[in-house]
């Protein structure tokens, strides 16, 4: 009996790993190119604001996007992060073209890891974040409209909580459903090496961008770098 | 007559604010003709021997000799404060660095990396930008030595003009991935 269960689990793990491996963005032959879109069509976008310096860099990245194309916009932030909330209202009012109130919405998440939090309580807070994001990014949108992911594209730039968002976005990908594309932008502060979140999510994102060439490694494995983005 | 803004962002960096508020540094600022010192001290406590009354939000004001000192724990008017200053002394956070250097004209910036951080990649950013000539870098214990040079006019003339943000780059990257090119 135990052997059967064990074999079952082992087989599923192997199949899951194979499935993930075959659909890794880095293995896709067509590169990162998408189906060409009508320039007048819209694209829904989710933005993770990770607090502090992550938020201020993300704010300046998002401020360069044409809002009439990238809508509706969903801002994901951590509970109690006043600075990110201020940045959102700043971004949305700064464009001066708010046509209707519903062009953006807010999704607060419990924080996955506080600075210097011990491992044991990190596990608890990380699973709270995981369950909350499972609901708001996967289950709830699935019940509303199974054909579409919660956003066409997700922008992340760290810290740790963004790893959870990548994990949840990958469920639809593994199931072979239409899925969210992910862009990770490493912080300007990363001159010579990648952050831990960057290293973790790199194989699983569709575009991985660094802002200093040396940070992204050398040769074939070098990350995309177009210089400073913020 | 000049105004200096000292900022640590949302971080805990008492060694910077303690050094700036030490009696010897305050007296050299007085000598260097600094008349106003604005300090955003973040999560740290102010040195106890500094006689300054702060309100519930951690804001307060005092005058030592001819130097007026204003302290605040946090601010949501950072850009405005930068605009009102002649010089900025900052921790190595990219937000503070960019806000200061992107002013037109850029404001002279002295970056003091927080060496008590374990993974101190922020010092890399400061050092790299220092090498490119955009700003000056100082360790906490060298502040007193570096301040006369930082506030002097010779260095100001050597500052490299900072590139403006290229607002097409990131948009092009996203458009490319989503099929809008």
From TrEMBL, chain A:
The gene is ALG14. Heterodimer with ALG13 to form a functional enzyme. Belongs to the ALG14 family. It is a single-pass membrane protein. PANTHER family: GLYCOSYL TRANSFERASE-RELATED (PTHR12154), UDP-N-ACETYLGLUCOSAMINE TRANSFERASE SUBUNIT ALG14 HOMOLOG (PTHR12154:SF4). Involved in protein N-glycosylation. Essential for the second step of the dolichol-linked oligosaccharide pathway. Anchors the catalytic subunit ALG13 to the ER. The keyword Acyltransferase does not apply. It is found in: Endoplasmic reticulum membrane; Nucleus membrane. It holds the Pfam family Alg14. The chain crosses the membrane at residues 6-24, 123-143, 149-171. Keywords: Endoplasmic reticulum, Membrane, Transmembrane, Transmembrane helix. It comes from Kwoniella shivajii. This is UDP-N-acetylglucosamine transferase subunit ALG14. It comes from the Eukaryota. The keyword Transmembrane applies.
Automatic annotation (TrEMBL), chain B:
SUPFAM superfamilies: UDP-Glycosyltransferase/glycogen phosphorylase. Its main location: endoplasmic reticulum. InterPro entries: Alg13-like, Glyco_trans_28_C. It comes from the Eukaryota. It catalyses: an N-acetyl-alpha-D-glucosaminyl-diphospho-di-trans,poly-cis-dolichol + UDP-N-acetyl-alpha-D-glucosamine = an N,N'-diacetylchitobiosyl-diphospho-di-trans,poly-cis-dolichol + UDP + H(+). The keyword Endoplasmic reticulum applies. Signal peptide: none annotated. Pfam families: Glyco_tran_28_C. Keywords: Endoplasmic reticulum, Glycosyltransferase, Transferase. Belongs to the glycosyltransferase 28 family. Involved in protein N-glycosylation. Essential for the second step of the dolichol-linked oligosaccharide pathway. This is UDP-N-acetylglucosamine transferase subunit ALG13. It comes from Kwoniella shivajii. The gene is ALG13.
């Amino acid at each position: 009996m135990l052997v059967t269960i064990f074999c079952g689990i082992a087989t599923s793990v192997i199949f899951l790993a194979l499935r993930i491996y075959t659909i890794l963005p880095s293995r896709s032959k067509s590169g990162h190119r998408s189906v060409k879109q009508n320039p007048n069509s819209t694209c829904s976008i989710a933005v993770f604001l990770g607090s502090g310096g992550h938020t201020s860099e993300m704010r300046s990245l998002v401020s360069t996007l044409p809002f009439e194309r990238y809508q509706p916009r969903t801002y994901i932030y951590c509970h109690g992060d006043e600075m990110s909330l201020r940045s959102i209202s700043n971004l949305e009012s700064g464009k001066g073209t708010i046509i209707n109130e519903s062009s953006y919405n807010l999704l607060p998440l419990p924080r996955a890891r506080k600075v210097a939090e011990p491992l044991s309580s990190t596990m608890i807070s990380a699973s709270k974040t995981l369950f909350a994001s499972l609901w708001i990014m996967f289950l709830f949108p699935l019940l509303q409209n199974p054909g579409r992911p919660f956003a066409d594209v997700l922008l992340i730039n760290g810290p740790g909580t963004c790893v959870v968002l990548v994990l949840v976005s990958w469920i639809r990908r593994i199931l072979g459903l239409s899925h969210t594309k992910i862009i990770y932008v490493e912080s300007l502060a990363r001159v010579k090496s990648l952050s831990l979140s960057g290293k973790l999510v790199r194989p699983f994102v569709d575009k991985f961008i660094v802002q200093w060439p040396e940070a992204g490694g050398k040769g074939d494995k070098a990350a995309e770098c177009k210089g400073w983005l913020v | 007559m000049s105004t200096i803004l000292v900022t640590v962002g949302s971080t805990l960096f008492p060694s910077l604010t303690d050094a700036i508020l030490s009696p010897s540094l305050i007296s050299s600022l007085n000598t260097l003709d600094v008349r106003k010192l604005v300090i955003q001290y973040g999560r740290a406590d102010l040195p106890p021997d500094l006689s300054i009354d702060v309100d519930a939000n951690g804001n307060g004001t005092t005058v030592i000799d001819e130097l007026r000192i204003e302290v605040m724990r946090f601010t949501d008017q950072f850009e405005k404060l930068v605009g009102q200053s002649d010089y900025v002394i900052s921790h190595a956070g990219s937000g503070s660095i960019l806000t200061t250097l992107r002013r037109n004209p850029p404001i002279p910036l002295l970056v003091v990396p927080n060496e008590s951080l374990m993974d101190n990649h922020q010092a890399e950013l400061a050092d790299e930008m220092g090498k490119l000539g955009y700003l000056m870098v100082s360790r906490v214990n060298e502040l007193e030595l570096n301040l006369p040079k930082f506030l002097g006019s010779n260095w100001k003339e050597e500052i490299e003009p900072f590139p403006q943000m290229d607002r097409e780059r990131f948009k092009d990257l996203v458009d490319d991935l989503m099929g809008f090119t």
